[in-house]
Amino acid sequence: MSNPTTPASIGPGEFFPVVGVGPHEKPWPEGPQFDPELLLNGDRRNVLDHYRYWTVEAIVADLDSKRHKLQIAIENWQHDLNIGSVVRTANAFNVSGVHIVGKRDWNKRGAMVTDRYLTVHHHPTVEDFAVWCKENELPIIGIDNVPGSKQLESAQLPEKCVLLFGQEGAGMSDEGIAICEVLYEINQYGSTRSMNASAAGAIAMYHWALQHLLVR
């Protein structure tokens, strides 16, 4: 029985098993999308099997050809650690873009390098973000449990829109709330006042996907 802590079984995360595939057997597949270094040494990235051994540029180009009309925005005034997880989920739904509103720097650890595969915009103020959305005819839908919010579970979301989330704890800023066309909240049934932004983001993105992506 092998030792579970040997280098052969431990990957990039301290306690996570190695993912991906090893070196590709020869003859190697041909095409501009393939990375010779990955073919030679193996591909340990967290990508779909379809993208194994592809360069980052080739993956991004393929994703760009089928981006969805949904975009995601997160307010970042206190360096929210949840932003990385929201970005990772946004990548999973292949959104058109992610918007960081406030501080430019954000903790990328939770994104698990998925920010390489989508476009991340930065807007220093809520006003700048609102102007960008107006110029791009993008309705802003706020997700937060504040007075006046409607139930997300019964909401019909536009196919083309941006979902705006506040930061952990404080929630959406007053300025953020003011620019939203509508606010929705996620029903909760326990004692906690709110769930974290990454969980709310995943629920809201899936709710949008149920309406616009899944075959009925």
Automatic annotation (TrEMBL):
Bilayer-spanning residue ranges: none
Gene3D superfamilies: 3.40.1280.10
Name of the protein: rRNA methyltransferase
Keywords: Methyltransferase, Transferase
CDD domains with a match to the protein in the record: SpoU-like (cd18096)
GO process terms (BP): methylation; RNA processing
UniProt-listed SUPFAM superfamilies: alpha/beta knot (SSF75217)
Stretches assigned to the tRNA/rRNA methyltransferase SpoU type domain: 70-206
GO molecular function: RNA binding; RNA methyltransferase activity
Domain of life from the UniProt record: Bacteria
InterPro entries given in the database record: Alpha/beta_knot_MTases (IPR029028), rRNA_Methyltransferase (IPR051259), SpoU_MeTrfase (IPR001537), tRNA_m1G_MTases_N (IPR029026)
